[in-house]
Amino acid sequence: xxxxxxxxxxxxxxxxxxxxxxxxxxxxxxxxxxxxxxxxxxxxxxxxxxxxxxxxxxxxxxxxxxxxxxxxxxxxxxxxxxxxxxxxxxxxxxxxxxxxxxxxxxxxxxxxxxxxx
Length: 117
What we know:
about 120 residues, alpha+beta, five-stranded antiparallel beta sheet, about 15% helix, disordered N terminus
């Protein structure tokens, strides 16, 4: 799926070592998961989740993760004004993750990293 934001932004995969480099800066107000790194909506959204980590700054709202997840871990959230996409796949039920890695494998911009328990 082509997404217009890909042409404007340089996309780098999620940093697998982000937990060693960043701090938890907030909790998601609705789902309660941790938010890591710089969080200044709508421009900087950080990494959402600890077990199922989604880098919201590179997420393009493609929906592959939502479609492929057998446990329905993800919920759509809106961040109007973010340059990559206004729609993000939040790891709303990261505790339900069965570590199948389907979301990580299918994300076209490698914005997801699963951390097994």
